[in-house]
């Protein structure tokens, strides 16, 4: 009889424990339901912060060029601001050399004109046609030499662009020695971005800048993003040998022929290295001296999402003001494991985090945050 009662009591205890377990589970589920969903507020990505160095857009070096004549003096002062086309250097130019080149052009032109007159009288004469072709080549070469002389003269004497003068040598200067620098007035900032950040920026984007040493702040604009990574530039920009000037049939120097090769594979970095791309920032609205360290902040328009807001079919649930959800199909890219929205969401949208499989379009939900 006692054994029977022991069995009955044991069964009652087991049933009670099972009831308690189910009760606790039910209460936990209810508590979880009452807790509601966490939400995520859509916002633009944090600004991209990079650093760089200020430099002039261009620097032109003026060296003593004895082919033009004898260097006399500079016509500008150190630190002076000049305009494009202003004369910077005074040479005692040997104008007879240019006159010789002009005479060669005139002589070659007269010969070509005579060739045309003879061809008009005998249009079917092949020898005259060949002579015309040869004489036109002589005229072209003579014209090139005159143009090169004039260009060299202009480049050696006049300001190529607006800028400031930095005089290096103002007294006795040997042939090929630097006389002065012309430094462009407009500064720029040169920096780099990684391949992972490259897609976030574009030419024309406005940026915030700060001079590291002084804290002065200003604005700028992205003017250029390199098409090739720096590893390619390092390879392609290695100086190549330029052949020396050759002499023509009359014993005069002609222009050297420079090779312009096609490079099929210029990447000399390890495949595991992330690529860096040069970015140039201009239109700077504060005074910046060349060499200053600069901090750049690029406001981003991109929207990045946490994985927790995506359903298994890559949709999201958008919460409206009535706490009802809209199941929305969005377009996005995955870059280095991160999710970047292309279409379907805007700043301020509220998304449900970790949506349950049972959640449907139009459901009203409780939210905890």
Number of helices: 5
**Computed CA radius of gyration, to the nearest angstrom:** 38 Å
Mean pLDDT: 84
By secondary-structure content and strand pairing, the structural class works out as alpha+beta
Share in β-strands: 25-35%
Major sheet size, sense and barrel closure? 6 strands, antiparallel, barrel
What is the terminal separation in angstroms? Answer: 60 Å
Percent of residues in helices comes to 25-40%
What is the compact description of this entry?
This protein has 369 residues and is of the alpha+beta class.
Detailed description of the structure:
The protein has a six-stranded antiparallel beta barrel with strand order 2-9-14-11-10-15. Strands 1-21-17-18 form a four-stranded antiparallel β-sheet, with no helix packed on it. Strands 3-8-7-5 form a four-stranded antiparallel β-sheet, covered by helices on one side. Helix 2 packs antiparallel against helix 3 (126-157). It starts with a helix and ends in a 17-residue tail after the last strand. The protein is elongated. The longest helix is centred in the first third of the chain and has 34 residues, at 2-35. It is built from five helices and 21 strands. A hairpin with a 5-residue loop joins strand 12 (246-247) and strand 13 (253-254). Mean pLDDT is 84; it is low at 30-34. With 369 residues, it is an alpha+beta fold.
């Amino acid at each position: 009889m006692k054994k029977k009662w022991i069995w009955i009591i044991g069964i009652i205890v087991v049933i009670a424990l099972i009831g308690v377990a189910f009760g606790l589970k039910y209460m936990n589920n209810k508590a979880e339901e009452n807790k509601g969903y966490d939400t995520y507020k859509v916002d633009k990505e944090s600004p991209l912060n990079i650093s760089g160095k200020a430099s002039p857009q261009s620097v032109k070096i003026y060296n003593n060029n004895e082919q033009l004549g004898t260097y006399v003096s500079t016509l500008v002062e150190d630190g002076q601001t000049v305009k494009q086309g202003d004369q910077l250097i005074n040479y005692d130019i040997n104008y007879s050399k240019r006159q010789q080149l002009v005479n060669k052009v005139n002589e070659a032109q007269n010969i070509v004109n005579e060739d045309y007159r003879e061809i008009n009288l005998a249009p079917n004469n092949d020898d005259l046609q060949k002579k015309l072709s040869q004489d036109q080549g002589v005229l072209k070469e003579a014209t090139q030499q005159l143009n090169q002389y004039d260009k060299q003269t202009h480049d050696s004497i006049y300001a190529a662009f607006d800028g400031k003068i930095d005089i290096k040598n103002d007294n006795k200067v040997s042939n090929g020695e630097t006389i002065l620098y012309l430094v462009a007035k407009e500064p720029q900032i040169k920096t780099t971005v990684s391949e992972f950040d490259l897609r976030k920026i574009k030419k024309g984007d406005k940026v915030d800048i700060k001079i590291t040493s002084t804290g002065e702040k200003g604005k700028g604009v992205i003017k250029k993003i390199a098409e090739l990574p720096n590893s390619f530039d390092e390879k392609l920009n290695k100086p190549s040998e330029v052949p020396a000037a050759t002499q023509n049939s009359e014993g005069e120097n002609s222009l050297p022929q420079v090779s312009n090769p096609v490079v099929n594979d210029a990447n000399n970095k390890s495949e595991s290295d992330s690529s860096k791309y040069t970015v140039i920032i201009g239109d700077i609205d504060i005074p910046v001296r060349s060499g200053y360290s600069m901090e750049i902040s690029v406001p981003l328009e991109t929207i990045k999402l946490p994985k927790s807001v995506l359903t298994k079919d890559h949709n999201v649930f958008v919460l409206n003001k009535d706490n009802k959800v809209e199941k929305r199909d969005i377009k996005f890219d995955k870059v280095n494991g991160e999710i970047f929205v292309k279409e379907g969401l805007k700043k301020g949208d509220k998304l449900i985090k970790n949506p349950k499989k049972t959640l449907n379009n139009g459901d009203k939900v409780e939210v905890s945050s």
